[in-house]
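We close this part of the discussion by returning to an individual protein. Part of our work consisted of pairing the sequence of a single chain with a tokenised description of its backbone. No coordinates are needed to read the tokens, only the vocabulary itself. The amino acid sequence and the backbone structure tokens for this protein are reproduced below:
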Amino acid sequence: MRPDLTRILDVRLYQAFDLDADGRVLAGSDDTGSTQLMEIEPDGTRTPLTALPGACTGRYLPAQRAVIVSHDDGGNELHQLSILRLPLPSGRPAGLADLEPLVRDPRYMHVLADVQADQICYFTNRRNGVAFDPVIRQLADGSERQLVLADAMFDDAAISPDGRWLALTVASPVTAASEHVAIVDLAAPAGQEQMTEVTPADALARNESLAWTPDALGLFFTSNNDREYLAVARYDLADGGLAWLLTADDADLTGWLAPDGSVLLVERNDDGASELTLHDATTGAKLGDLALPSTGTITDARLPAPCWAPDSAGVVLSVSGPELPGDVLLATGLESGDARLRQLTHSARALGPPAVTPEPHRVPTAGDEVVPCLVYRGAADGDAAVAGSAVVVVHGGPESQSRQNFNTYVQVLAAAGHTVLVPNVRGSTGYGKSWYSADDQHRRLDSVGDLAALHAYLPKLGVDQDRAALWGGSYGGYMVLAGLAFQPELWAAGVDIVGIASFVTFLENTSPYRRAYREREYGTLGSDREFLHSVSPLTRVADIRAPLFLIHGANDPRVPLSEAEQIHAALTGRGRDCQLLVYADEGHGLAKRANRLDAVPKAVEFLASHLATPS
């Protein structure tokens, strides 16, 4: 008998977006089926704030009872900015018509980057559809200052407390998974602004988590410039000096500075699990630990960063772990080192039986490398027919990491009875710069080779190699298709969610801003077309013999629906078993619970039909 997986797919997830001076938390809740805003009062009272057609995020407006809401249309990622006044004028959650337009033009993206009491900074591609320019908008009169600094993408921004400086992380135009830190003097005449580099523009380096000191003389950020792992650095504005405050030789460290400049909250990424400590921001001395209620992570691709209260009295965290699907935590007492952590939401209460927790493994490759991998054993009460089978779930990115969070797909597959392998193949972050750059451009198939190493490892897990499947989304979807195309003898089935079938057609048809961004990683159409063609699964479609299940959103601006349609047409035209599900109200993935409840059981049933023990 096959288990009921609805309990996992129907779990409610919560995340924290902001914390105001009165201790209110601006949170996201998917109680209604997609992530909507809600407010959690200090006494625990929850008030739903939005009822928009699609998912949204937000930030408080300091010194006002108002929220800036970021929203799009059906997952198309053309983010628009609006203001929601509080308390709710109508007493009910706000619909789109109830929001006060702030920055709206449905042709372009507007990405909220920083919020101050009198002004905000956002990034927009409205100049030419490709480059993202920072815009400083005055809230009092709506006047804007658009900074044309470079034809680049900007990932992060921080306005100094005195309003004089703008710090930016600037995506490298040529180096994959890299950005550098720059500052702009806003005292310069409009149109004459220049970027001053804080870190080298051409370096292979990640830089993030910008924060100014209260006196605007120092800038804190996280960086691995000239280092293997991320560390916490401070830049001195007066002399241009850069110093490392906290470092580790075996793990990434990320820091978030309190607004008063006194304390740093620091995360150590330990094989995908977060270990939290508090440090003096001047000396780096450790003040204490901040223990999570269960193993999990406070940072991953879907979680917003921790957010301090304006008075530095507390910090609100989003956390996800195998036993904590998605929750909001509030930490106080941080300045003394006597930190107290309060869990404001309890997503696990609706989960039912305990979730499956992972085992860490290191899988050897033919080239003497090892692939970090988390293994989730199939539940004992799962479908007996699929016991002994394996599903390898590959993350997207590729510059991302499968962390020790709650992954709905992984938990569903384990509950169904499969042994689930969740690897961090080369190209993954979290294990040093050398590992995440090991798949760049012409080394693309090296990461696909890691799939073969995982397949060879299956007997050590007591798994039948003849009953192994691949599952992945976005770049992970490419890995599914590549595994089936380049290793057809190894895999019995595949599930591809919004994956890339051809790097050539993907780059030709993706949004223009995405093309400029992704060519750094994969290669350019102008110079690398032949190589891109050679590593595309569509090129080897005749070799694919395993059954394939495709899921895609019609509004996907990153990997167009045409990627799924063409691989589906090519396979069905050859008489292969290939099924395609398309959701008209989705973008890059399955953001709505109703669609997950429809798609995932069908995909699991598909795998069961192909991985079951031969009768």
